[in-house]
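Recall the central idea of this unit: under ordinary conditions, the amino acid sequence of a chain determines the structure it adopts. In this exercise we apply that idea directly, starting from the sequence alone.
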Amino acid sequence: MNERNVVGWFEIVVSDIERAVKFYNELFGFSMEAVDFGEAKMAMFPADFEKDLPGAAGALFLDTQRKPSSDGTLVYFTSPSGDCANEQKKAQELGAKIITEKYEIPEGHGFMILIEDSEGNTIAIHSRE
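Accordingly, the structure predicted from this sequence is:
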């Protein structure tokens, strides 16, 4: 049995890296910067690569071969505030489309919202409260 989470890395494809970095920084209250990664541009979400922490690290990724989409993989972010209603409010202030307002996930799995980010990707934000 694997003692780690199965997801080791994720990338959210963007069409405007600067706009996407600004959106996610303001939504979640952290500070990412776009950097050149070889021929590509990316901005990594905060992670500590020295520790074996649960969860997965990831990045925004400017890719000329792929396009942002609301129809693909759904990434769930953990609410930094502990209540995804706070991120829902912030997303609305940033002009994001709220796809699904905060609702309770059955069987005690917490709460979630679905929003469309600045690039057209659908993301989820999860909280226990």
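The CA atoms of residues 65 and 81 lie 35 Å apart.
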